[in-house]
UniProtKB/TrEMBL annotation:
Keyword Coiled coil set for record: yes
UniProt-listed PROSITE patterns: NERD
Superkingdom of the organism of origin: Bacteria
Domain NERD: 91-235
Protein name: NERD domain-containing protein
Amino acid sequence: MIIVLLLCSIILFCLVIYFYKKSNDNMKLKEKKEQALNSNIDSEKNQNKDLSARYNELSQKYEDVCRENKNLKESYRLSSVSNKNMGEIKASKELQEIFEQLQEEVDIDHFVKFDNLFLYDLKEPRQIDHMIICDYGIYIFETKYWEGDIYYNISKESLKGTKHELLNRYIFYKQDENEHQTFVLKLNENGEIEYCNHGNPYKQIYKTMKKLSAFLDKQYFINSIIYFNYHNDKYHFIDGSDKSNGIIGVNQKENLYDLLKNRMKNFKFKKLNEQQIKYLMQKFEKYKV
């Protein structure tokens, strides 16, 4: 009997020792898990702090960019208002009149006109004097209010065999056969011939057309027209560009009207619907200066 009691005591003692050790092991495991959990929580907190700081930094940068764009746009607007030339004001009125007349003659259901757009958020910002969106597509206009005889997109080759060939001796004596220029000749107050070269608007509007086409994901055909609208019958307009060239230079309101009417009557693409025109109108609304 004593032996049995002794054995029971030993077994009980062993069980106590086992459960005590098990309890200690569980406590240590619990502490490790809590430490690991706390470590993970601290790590997450630090990551959250880093993400929060990064978010605040990016938000600040975004606000700075928005502010810069706004300031740039406002600066351009103020500069444009103060420097807006007579030609652009005149062209805006003439384009409105032309398209109102075309509405009746070539069945235009909708058109919207923008003056002085500034696409400030492109990689290379572009300014557009006038844009008209209608059933027959997108039309952009570069206006030049230049007084004198206009020689548009002239090359040395284009003057050969014409009554203006003599100009090659003075204008193109250093240039390549195929280099093009746009320039103005007029008499000054002393009766002397004055040569003025303000750059070639053909290159200007061509670059704008390409940037605009990419901006619209090449989904729309863009008609590009350079409008010389200093009206005086004593001056001549000489066009040296290839007749197959899509970028047209034109002078006088009636010539611009005839050009647009002819393009619309020979239009071979699918016309824009009201929804597309409204979409484009909303897209360009924010670029108004």
